[in-house]
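Hey, I'm writing a tutorial for new members on how sequence and structure tokens pair up, and I'd like a real worked example in the thread rather than a made-up one. If someone can provide the structure for the chain below, I'll link this post from the tutorial.
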Amino acid sequence: MDFFAVKLHANARSGRVRTLAAMAIAVVATVVVVSVAAERDHSANRPTSDVRIRGTSAPIRSDGPKFEAHFVNKPIRLADERGRQTYGESKVDPIEKNGPIFVDWPKPDAAMIFTGDQLGYLEPCGCTGLENQKGGLKRRDTFVKQLAEKGWPLVMMDTGGHSKGYGPQPKIKLRNSIEALQQIGYQAVGLGDNDLRFELLSIAVNLDPNPLTCANVAILEFDGGFSQRFAIVEKGGFKFGITAVLGERERKTLPTSDEIVHMPADEALKEVLPKLQAANCDQLVLLVYAGVEDTKALAANFPQFKWVVAGKGGDEPPYQPTKLDHGAQLIEVGSKGKYAVVVGLYRDGKTKFEYQKVPLDVRFDDSPTMQQRMVDYTQELQTLGFDGLGIKAQAHPSGHEFIGSQACVDCHGEEFEIWENTPHAHATEAIVDASPPRQFDPECISCHVTGWNDPKYVPWISGFESIEKTPHLTANGCENCHGPAARHVAAENGDIDVTDEEIEALRRALHVKIVENEGNKAGQVEGAVVRNCLECHDIDNSPDFDFQEYWPAVKHGSGK
């Protein structure tokens, strides 16, 4: 019996079988505004087996019509074109929300694109609707292609900071990030300190051409061919001399390694700058993977660079670059790959330059090339499995084990029915129905099943393993908030010998209390309940989360 059939059987026992339409509405509330897109064939991205959706008796072919995000590719619009149109089936007008781009820009003779500090965000999480979120390689590739189709000569540079964390999955994401940038056409790609904790040689040898650029850090040896200290690019009558460095604070954190060699950034620039000058480069660009203040300090020692880019800084780029004391322009790229910064250059002498921070939002359709990369990425995770990804179950701090929400229904039927009609009950379905499906991705699983340590992307012992092995632990169930309840259920059912005192203690251990004015906004009390919610409803996955607004939809127990 497959996952959805098991769910149906469980619901039938309690007499609450719902219709497919009701399920679809719940999924819409959880994930994105959706449409039936039968005309689009994503069958290559989905499992080929039949699945049963909760509340239906007939299997639905996974290669048939799907409820899915359906955004239509649109050209770049200027202010006088904005109108009030929607994008595909999205209810969000990205121009209304995030503003128009390239307003009154003459076509540049050359355009520099700056990105960086992606931190493993190959794509934004779709939990709260992709139309509400920015970033992702799919949109970035489309954005670049649209500019190229307009005939803009492009020079693309990334400061580095591709990864976050350590382990097999972050390494896979790092490889995909670097390969994607090379595939998009970047001429210079820097490296951050966390990137350099991974084995990079196996990535570098497969890059052709190889855009990895760093003046003060090299793979194996400087000028060894596995990375470049600088790049020279000619576009639109300009000659760009580009180099990148790792900031000193970041360099000092690097582990001892036989694979990388490094030196202070200022010493490296003293070696590289004369070579760029000797090549008669008229646009000198310095990419620095460091904070803004450290970047400014380094730039002051090398005023020859006209463009200086800080790889670490605020969440968003500013609306204008910062002019430094020596005349250089300081660019900030923001964080998590949510924006690209574009600088347009002109040779006519009338326009010094144009600047635009570009939100990578739903105005840019998903690139088929990057979509296939995401398919390959998720398939790699599936092939490796938890063992191959180094994921080991941990003992829950309580020492207890999980049993699943269905075990709660006999004694807590009213509460179960409330939960069953919330998006939490459809959390696993949301990632199964994603494109590509994400039920094999630990970073998605952790908040979409029962019995995982959310912040660490690992299961608790007795927690969810897979849809096939542990169907009773699908959905974001009761025990994610109340704690593992297997011993409590066994005690209540008389399956184990316990005292009345222990029965009461087991009951109390599962109680949660909302304190007065508990919430996650200014002036509210961030209690234990809210802290638990914020493990999944964080700024990346649920940016609009407001506990006091959300709680009435899931109220149950004495919290009512």
